[in-house]
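Give me structure tokens for this 145-residue protein.
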Amino acid sequence: MAFKFKYQKLLDQKIELENQCKLRLAEAIANLTRKKNEIKQLNIRKKSFDEEHVKSLSQGMKSEQLRSYNEYRLWYKSELARLDGELNVVKSVLLNARADLKKANTEVKKFEKLKENAQIEYREQEQIKFSKMIEEIISYNHFKK
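Here you go.
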């Protein structure tokens, strides 16, 4: 008779949950990387814009251009603030995904340990049955003489 773990379906569900948590964590890491790249690109564009503005100031600038520059500067500032807020949200999602994965991983390990212990117990029971069967054969052969 082969070993059958009575909680195998539950273990399979826990493994599936763990895999889903791994996927969510990977998505969160990808989102974090994407947001960081967005912020980096916006900072590069802002730096380039500021450098162009400094060149324009040295050549002389009209009040209309100065007003436009200030509007763009405010837009960059608000856009960076918005992206920082989104980055914080993504970081919290990432932390939650890590915590969920850790919990799911712990659950899987518990059930795998239960399965391992059940297998050991099963092997011990099979060994006892085998030993009894050998003893019966020996005693049968002994009394047969």
